[in-house]
Specification:
single chain, alpha+beta, Rossmann fold, four-stranded mixed sheet, 2 helices
């Protein structure tokens, strides 16, 4: 299984480099390459979990696990939807 990690914690929060924009750009590239698993490290103050779930679903990923890394950061693991 091919897996990629996106770390959104150290992204500048200017209007054209917000973590959400970085996430969408990364997901577009990953979905084109058919990456099966995405590990996203993020701060909930930058991107609320429900927004992250919505964006991931838009690119064909389903959240499988969310765990807290420290007081500000989370690790989210999402896998590509499989069609049956």
């Amino acid at each position: 299984m091919n897996s990629e990690e996106i770390d959104l914690r150290k992204t500048a929060t200017t209007c054209n480099s917000h973590p959400i924009l970085q996430l969408k750009s990364s997901l577009e590239s990953l979905s084109e390459r058919s990456v099966e698993e995405v590990r996203v490290i993020f701060s909930e103050k930058d991107i609320p979990v429900n927004i992250l779930r919505f964006i991931l679903a838009k690119y064909g990923y389903i959240v499988h696990e969310i765990s807290r890394l420290n007081s500000e950061s989370f690790l989210l693991i999402a896998k590509r939807k499989t069609e049956k």
